[in-house]
Amino acid sequence: MKTFDYEAPVTIDQTITLMSKTRGKTLLLAGGTDLLVQLRYSNQDVDLVIDVKGIPELNQINYDEFSGLVIGAAAPCSQIYESAPVLENFPAIIDAATIIGGKAIQNRASFGGNLCNASPSGDAIGAMMSLGAICNVVGSEGVRNIPIEDFCIAPGKNALEKGEMLISIQIPSPRPNSGSHYLRFTPRAEMDIAVAGVGASIELDSDLNKILSARIALVAVAPTPVLATEVSESLVGQKTSGSLLEKAANIAKETISPITDVRGSASQRKHLIGVLTRRCLDIAVKRAVQVS
Amino acid sequence: MSKKMIERDKHISVGTRPERMDAKDKVTGHALYGTDINLPGLLHGRVLRSPHAHARIVSIDTSKAEALPGVFAVVIANDLPEADDRTEKAGESTINYKFLRDNNLASDKVLYVGHAVAALAAKSPDIAQNALELIEVEYEILEPVLDVRHAMSDKTQVLHEQIRTDGPDGSGDTPSNIAQHIRHVKGDPDKGFSDADVIVEREFTTVPVHQSYLESHAATAVWGMDGTLTIYSSTQGAFLARRQVSELLQYPMSKIKVIPTEVGGAFGGKNPTYVETPAALLARKTGRPVRVVMSREEVILGTGPGSGTAITVKVGATKLGKITAVQAELCYEAGAYPGSPVHPGAMAMFAAYDIPNGQIDGYDVLVNKPRVAAYRAPGAPQSAFAGEQIIDELAQKIGMDGVEFRMANAASEGTERLDGSLHKSIAIQEILGVIEDHPHYNEPLDGPNQGRGIAIGFWDNWGARSSVEINVNSDGTVNLISGSVDLTGSRTTVAMQAADVLEIPFENVKSSMVDTDSISYTDTSAGSRTTMATGLAAVEAARDVLTKLQLEVSDMWSVSLDSVVYSKGVFRTTERKSENITFADLAAKLSGQINGHGNVNVENWAGAGGGTIVDVEVDPETGQVKVLRCTAIQNAGKAIHPGHVEGQMQGGVVQGIGWALYEGYQYDELGHVLNANLLDYKLPTSLDVPSVEAVIIEKPFPSNPYGARGVGETPIISPAPAIANAVQQALGQRIDQLPMTPTTLLEKIGVI
How far is CA B310 from CA B150, B362, B524, B623, B742, in A? Predict the structure, then answer.
C-alpha cells in the first residue's frame, strides 16, 4: 500500500471542490470494505482518499409513499436492515443487506459502495435493480439521475464521470400486490461472494393470480449485474403457476453467457441461474400474495 | 517414578476445568504475537517469490534493488553456507537440511509458484515491496509437474536429477519423482481376496489443504555485539527452530536464542522454518533487527499444506461380514522436496481394524507445489476418506449396519497392524459402542435429501522429550517453566498436573513458556504430545520438588527421610505426631530456594481412537451440503482438562468439515494457485458448522501417571469420510474426491 492523502469533508460541496482541485487519482471511501482491500493488495497509485461517511445526506434512509425510499450512498447495511420502512416495504433490500459479507462487514459496508464498486457479483446491485432504482449523482456540472441498469458499465467500472459522486439511491414505492426477493448461491453461509444471484420484483393483479409487471436482475453471470428483460416479458400478463416460473427460469438460463472462474464453471452458473430464478420468483410471488 | 499411576481419588486439579491462563490476553488483544515484536531500528524484511512452478534460475541481479534508497540489504541462496544432505526427524515429519536450505532460498531451481528466491530489508514495508520489483531474475522455464499420477510416470520431467526411488527392494537407478516407495504386507493378500464373497474397489483423490492458522509466519532476528543471534519466532517448536537455523547458518546452537511468541495456530505447519533464517541473514548484513512477516498469500503459496493424494483401495469380506483382505496404493504429493506423510497415512488407514491379510504400497511423490508440512494427523484424513468410505460401501454390499460391520472387524489390544506394529490398549469397540447407543445414531432423520454417516479413525500420537522446571516461591506459590510452545492451552494443562502432584491449588502455579537459553531441550509441540509428555515432565519436576522438601524437613526435624510424609499440603513425620509444616510455611523458611527438574523422554505412549456421527442435508439442485448435526467421540485416556479435550474434538470436526466440503488449492495448468486468499480458499465459517457434541471416553493408558493419551489429532480424521458416507446416503451417490464442493457434487450427479 502506497501513501496517500486523506480528507473527511462533511458536505457534498466540500467533496466536489476537493475532487475538482486534486490533480491525481482520487477515490471515495464509504464503508471501505472493498476499497481498503483493493488499496492494500492492488498496489495502485492513489493520491487522495476522501472519506464521505461524515456527510449527513450520504447517511440518510428516508421513506415516504410519494418519493419512495432514499438510501444515502454511505449508509451501512446494518442501518438499512434495521430500518422499519425498509423492513415493511422492500424485502429484496433486506435480503441483500443481510447477506453481504458477515455481521461485522454489514456494520460498515454500504449499498452505495457496493454499487460504485461495480462488481459483477454485487448483491445490493441485483436487489436494487429488480426494484427499479435510480442513482442520484452530483458533480461540478450539476445533478444527474442514472437508472441503475446503466450505472455499472464493466467489472469495477461505473458511469460516474471524473468529479462526480453518488449521493443516494432512490427506489420507487412498492406497487399494490407486489413482492420482491433477492437470492444468491454461495458455497459458504457467510463471508462469501455470489457464484450466481437473482433479484426479482413481481406485481400481481387484484385477484392475485396474474402478473402485471416484473423486473428480474441476474448477478455474477455477466460483466455487470444485468436486467433480464426477456424473463420479465415472459411473465407479464401471465397467470402465476409452477410451469410459468419454470419457463421463465429456462429463459433466464438462455439469456446469459457466463464465464468459468475459480468460483464456478460456466455450466454451473447457467444451471444455477435456472434454479435461482425459479426459486426467487416463487418467493417474490408468495410475498406479493402475503402483503395484499 | 512416572510408571506409577496416580490414584484417581487423589486428583485435585486434574479432571477439572480451570480457565485457560492465556485466554483473556488473547481475546482482548494483549497477547504478543510475532508481528507485535518491535525493536529499535527495526527493518522490514520481504521475500521475493517465484512466479513460475518449475524453472531454472539463470541469474539474479539485485543491484537495482540494493540501490533503491531505504533498502539496507538483499540476500540470496549464495549468502548461506552449503548445508548437509542429511535427513532428521522433526516432529511428525522429516527435515533434510540441503532441501530446507533450498526451500528457504532457492539456489539452482524454483520448484513451485511462491518459492522464495531472495529476501531484502528496508526501512518501510512500502520500500521493501517496491524494491522486490527491482530484483531481476532470469528464469529458464521448465515443464511443471502438477498431477501426482503424472509425476509418477516415466515420461515426466523430474524435479530433482539426483533423486532415486528409495524402495522396498532397494534404490532405483534412474532419476524419479517417486522419492520413496514403502510397502506393508501382512498375511497372504491373494488368498484373502480369494476367500472373499464381496470385493469393492475404488479410487479416491484429494487436493492440498492448508492448515490456515489465523496467524501467519513471523520472525524477528537481531544480532548482539557478542555474536549472539536472537530470533523471535511464531514457531511451534523453539528448539526445532533453533536446530534449523543453526544448521542453515552453520552456527553454534549456544549462540542462537529462539524466543517463541504466542502462536495463533500451527497444526503442524509451523514445524518447518521459512523466514527465520532469511531474517537472520538480513539482520547480520545490516546490523539491525529485521522482521519478516508473511502475508496470507505468502502463507498459502510459500508454506507447506497437507498432501494432495490419489488412493486406490480394494477390500474383500465374507458375506458374514469378516474382512479377508485389503489392498491399497497411496500416492501422496510431497511437493517440491521429499517428505510427504505417506507413512502415517498408511499407518492410520486401517489401524482401527483387525485385518488378516493386506498390502499397502505408499509413494512419496515430488510435484511442483510447496513442500508439504505436517497438518494435524498428517496423512490420515486423506487415507481415512478412502478407507472409511470403502468400509461403508462394503457393509452396504453385504447388507450389514455400518457399526455392526466395523464392530465385527475392530482392532483391540494386541492386534497386529498392517505396518507390523502391535496395538496397545485402544478403545475401538468402546467407541463403536458409544456410537451404537447414542441418541444421534438412533433418532430418525427428519427431512428429504438428508443422510447420516459414521466413520472411525485411529492416530498413533507421539511421546518424545520435554523439560520442565519448577521454582518454589517464599509465599508457597510456584513458577513453572517449560520448553514447550503453548499452542492449545498446554501452559494450563501442564500446570494442572504439577499442582496435582504438589497438592497445592492450581491458582498457585504460574506457568510460562520460555526461550531456548532458559531450559533444556524440548521437542516441538506436535503429535498430540504436549499435555501428555510435558505434563509428565511437570509431574517429574513436582516430585523432585517434594523429594527435596522432604529432605529439608528431615534435616529440620532431625528425623529419618523415610518418616517424612506429605499429604494435602502438609508435611508430617511418622516419628513425632506433633510436628507438621505446610508447603507454604516450609517454602517461606527456605526463602523459596527450592527447584525441581523434570526431563523426560517418553518412549512409551499410546494412540487414540475416535469416531464421528454426522447428519447432512444435500440440495440436489445446487449441490450444497449442509451439516445439520455432528457428534464426536474420542478416547482421551484421561481428560486432564475436559474442556480443552472437547475444544480439540470440536476444532477437529470444524477443520474436518473444511476438508470435506470447502477447502482445497485450485491450480491452473501452469501451476499458479487460483485461490491464494481466504475469500476463494474457503474455510468454513461459524454459520457453516453445527454445534458439535463431544463425547469423551476415558480408557486409561497405564504407562502415564494419569492414564492420559494425546487428543489433538484424532478428531480431524473421521469427519470427512463420515460426511461422505452421509452424502452417499442422502444422494445415493458416492463422492470419491475432496473437497465435496457444490460444483463437484453437481458434476458427479450429472446435473452439469
Answer: 11, 10, 30, 23, 21
Q: How many structural domains is chain A composed of?
A: 3
Q: Please answer whether residues B694 and B598 qualify as being in contact, where contact means their C-beta atoms are separated by less than 8 angstroms.
A: no
* CB-CB under 8 Å, A271 with B752: yes
What's the CA angle centered on B302, arms B100 and B213, to 5 degrees?
A: 105
Q: Are residues A84 and A42 in the same domain?
A: no
Query: For residue B2, what pLDDT is reported?
Result: 43
What percentage of chain B carries pLDDT values higher than 90?
A: 97
Question: By the 8 A CB rule, do B433 and B403 touch?
Answer: no
pLDDT of residue B12: 87
By the 8 A CB rule, do B341 and B372 touch? Answer: yes
Per the CB < 8 Å rule, is A262 touching B685? Answer: no
Residue A193 to chain B, least CA–CA distance (Å): 8
pLDDT band at A42 (very low <50, low <70, confident <90, very high): confident
Spatial distance between the Cα atoms of B121 and B143, rounded to a whole number of angstroms: 32
Q: How far apart are CA B651 and CA B602, in angstroms?
A: 26
Q: What's the CATH fold of domain B144-423?
A: Aldehyde Oxidoreductase; domain 4 (3.30.365)
Q: Which amino acid is at B192?
A: G
Determine whether the interchain pair B752/A191 forms a contact, defined as Cβ–Cβ distance below 8 Å. Answer: no
Query: Which residue, B211, B210, B212, B217, is CA-closest to B33?
Result: B217
Q: Which three three-digit cell numbers place residue B342?
A: 505417506
Which contiguous run of DSSP H or E holds residue A87? Answer: helix A84-89
Record: contact B688-A188, CB cut-off 8 A: yes
Tell me, letter by letter, the H, E, C secondary structure of A178-237. EEEEEEEECCCCCCCCCCEEEEEEEEECCCCCEEEEEEEEEECCCCCCEECHHHHHHHCC
What pLDDT, on the 0 to 100 scale, is given for residue B4?
Answer: 62
Binary contact (A188, B621; C-beta < 8 A):
no
Same domain, A201 and A284: yes
Q: Which residues of B sit within 8 Å Cβ distance of A? A: 126, 129, 621-622, 624, 661-662, 666, 674-675, 679-680, 682, 684-685, 687-688, 741-743, 746, 751-752
pLDDT band at A2 (very low <50, low <70, confident <90, very high): confident
Residues 6+ apart with CB under 8 A from B661: A187, B625, B627, B684, B688, B723, B739, B740, B741
3 state SS of B109: strand
Length of chain A counted residue by residue: 292
Q: Give contacts of A189 with chain B, Cβ < 8 Å.
A: 685, 687-688
Which tens digits make up the pLDDT trace of A191-213?
999 999 999 999 999 999 999 99
| CATH for B8-31+463-602, options being 3.30.420.150, 3.40.640.10, 3.30.365.10, 3.40.50.1000 | 3.30.365.10
Domain interval for residue A9: 5-51
Q: What is the ipTM of this complex?
A: 0.96
**Alpha helices (H) in B97-200, listed in sequence order:** 97-104, 125-132, 148-152, 189-194
Q: Dihedral, CA atoms, B2, B4, B10, B15, nearest 10 degrees?
A: 60
CA distance A263 to chain B (A): 7
Residue B6 predicted with pLDDT over 90? no
Do A153 and A189 belong together in one domain? no
| Residues whose CB falls within 8 Å of the CB of residue B129, separated by 6 or more in sequence, listed in order | A43, B46
Residue A43: predicted pLDDT: 67
Measured CA to CA, the distance from residue A284 to residue A203 in angstroms comes to: 9
